[in-house]
Amino acid sequence: MSEQTYIQLPHQNKQDIDVEAIEKRIKQSAKRSGSEKLYAYNWLGDIRNIPSTHNVVEIRFKNTRKEYFINNLNLDLEVGDIVAVEAQPGHDIGVVSLLGELVQEQIKKNERKNDNFLKVYRKARPSDIEKWEEAKALEHKTMIKSRQIAKSLRLNMKIGDVEYQGDKTKAIFYYIADERVDFRELIKLLAEEFKIRIEMRQIGARQEAGRIGGIGPCGRDLCCSTFVTNFITVTTHAARVQEVSLNPQKLAGQCGKLKCCLNYEYASYTDARKNFPETNIPLEFANFRANHIKTDVYKETMWYVYRANDASHILELHVDQVNDIIAQNKKGIKPEKPDAKPESKADTSHEYGNVVGQDSLTRFDVEKRKKHKNRGGQNNPNTQRSNNPNRPNAPQKPQGGEQQPKATNGNPQQAKANTTTNQQQQAKKPNNTNNNRNRNRFQPKNKPNNAQ
Description:
Number of strands: 12
Strand order of the largest sheet: 1-2-5-3-4
Mean pLDDT: 76
Number of helices: 13
Largest sheet: 5 strands, mixed, barrel
């Protein structure tokens, strides 16, 4: 989590606050470049010994609040230093976010006045940082309690965030409301409840989403909570120019307003549509009339629909073709239907070969192989498995299907008995080569004739 949003952790006592760890963490986050909304890249930071013409520094506070202060004591400050600055009343604690000549440019950009800046008191002491952390730990509880008080007064407002001052003598309550709210009674009750000075600031729905944060439909952090600092008005005209469907549920962000990202490519689409004609102008041909249905801005292609032979047809045209047909229609000329859209110079799409068949819908379908079962015979692998001499541990049989005689131990009578036994067994054994056994298994048995 970036340092622009406080990490609010409850502290049991002052010994729980590690001041050195807090300073180290803030230093690391201040030097980290990225898309943080409070980060400003100092492109003059690598140049040494630049004579400074002013002593104004930029200090950042919670979320999007930034202020400018005068370093009248000429303190040796660096980006990421925690400092105590002047406040009204008391003092506040902030982090140095920018130094040098770029501060003047930031002041001009934000349209701030160059006079009446408050002062930088000192670098924050350990006691200042401890008090600052204790104040931040109270912000969430204060926000919940203030919402309950506002609800009891039946005020049409929502308190979205609370920011305590570094010395715990003042708090800023940020709220949103559709109408003007009389919160004078609310301020009295809040001052009695928390024993602090109260300041109410009204913000919009976009500012509230930026302070709270979240994940957008694109899967990334909200733009308003990362890098967007100045909110620009977003209209539905930006969606029309980009050919986006005017669906309120898809065009609205988490704040309920139109998404800020609709303005990102608005300028490029506007520049690309300079040569495009109006979409409500129909095209008059010799045999039919075509109306616009779709536009591809960057490919400079427009699609028109027309009816011929009791059927609807789609006509794809280049922008130059459409402009020529409209010019001819203004002169009263109705041209014939063009053959095909000419190749566009701006169309730089590359054609790639479908090597692995990724465009096929049936590329994952595997053909089921039919199992041909050969019952019996020499082609049956199950039948010849035991007779395979190459199979390991296979019993070796003599050729011709004859069985080996048993050991006789030199007894001629025993050898003659074994030969007779083998001949009897071979006579009883069925012939597998003719499939007699398999054929007889499926033939019906002879039944007695009961027809008498």
